[in-house]
Write a structure and sequence with these properties.
6 helices, 32% helix, 228 residues, alpha/beta, Nucleotidyltransferase, domain 5, 29% strand
């Protein structure tokens, strides 16, 4: 199985490839407002390095949010265009699931994670995860919350990792009690591809015509994230 993964939910534009059980290739650029210009270039670089053509793909996986309105729109429209042009199925991968899995892979001692991204106007997208049997599993629903509520939900343990796009702001509040790291290095196309491969193997494909990004706040439940 060969799966292409597209990640454009933040300032990171990343393309990865999953093949023969391994998320083996990835090309990424972190720079704002370059997704429309660079995304297809990264696709060409990844497939060229792998020595395959786009027609050899079994499916295309795309990160669907939440995140940047523009970035998500570019990523999904590109994925849809490729899926239609190549007659390949599309797989939708929740952005925070991929970020949490990437965090788990890099931090093997972590027992719980929280992905926390600025949703503007003093609101935050948040979701908590627990590490279960070597995988990051959601411990609550995706929510919009104020920062204070998110901080109160955190456990003061070094085994908790928070991945956020506002590191300095959060560290001023939680200090050293909780690990806090920049979310951007964990926005990886290869992880999107790997999670997409699992969904494809289970037959969990998305209807390309109807698929929309998760970028509208009104689509989310306003609850507090579960304790990490």
């Amino acid at each position: 199985m060969i799966i292409l993964g597209l990640e454009t939910s933040t300032a990171v534009c990343s393309v990865g490839l999953y093949r023969t059980g391994v998320a083996e290739l990835e090309q990424s650029i972190q720079e704002s407002h370059i997704h429309s210009e660079k995304l297809l270039t990264l696709v060409q670089q990844v497939t060229g390095t792998a020595g395959i053509t786009l027609h050899q793909l079994d499916a295309i996986a795309v990160s669907i949010g939440p995140g940047s309105f523009t970035g998500l729109r570019i990523g999904l429209s590109t994925a849809k265009g490729m899926a239609f042009a190549l007659d390949k199925p599309l797989v939708a991968v929740p952005t925070f699931d991929a970020i949490a899995e990437s965090g788990r892979q890099w931090h093997t001692a972590v027992k719980s994670l929280v992905v926390l991204v600025d949703a503007k106007k003093d609101e935050w997208f948040a979701r908590a995860y627990r590490i279960v049997d070597g995988a990051a599993e959601a411990a609550g629903r995706l929510a919009i919350s104020d920062l204070g509520a998110v901080v109160r939900s955190l456990t003061n343990e070094s085994s908790t990792l928070v991945l956020t796009d506002k590191v300095s702001e959060l560290r001023k509040i939680v200090g050293e009690a909780v690990q806090v790291e920049d979310v951007h290095p964990y926005c990886r196309g290869s992880v999107v591809a790997a999670l997409g491969a699992k969904k494809a193997a289970a037959g969990e494909f998305a209807g390309a015509a109807a698929l929309e990004p998760l970028y509208l706040k009104d689509f989310l439940v306003r609850t507090l994230p579960a304790s990490a």
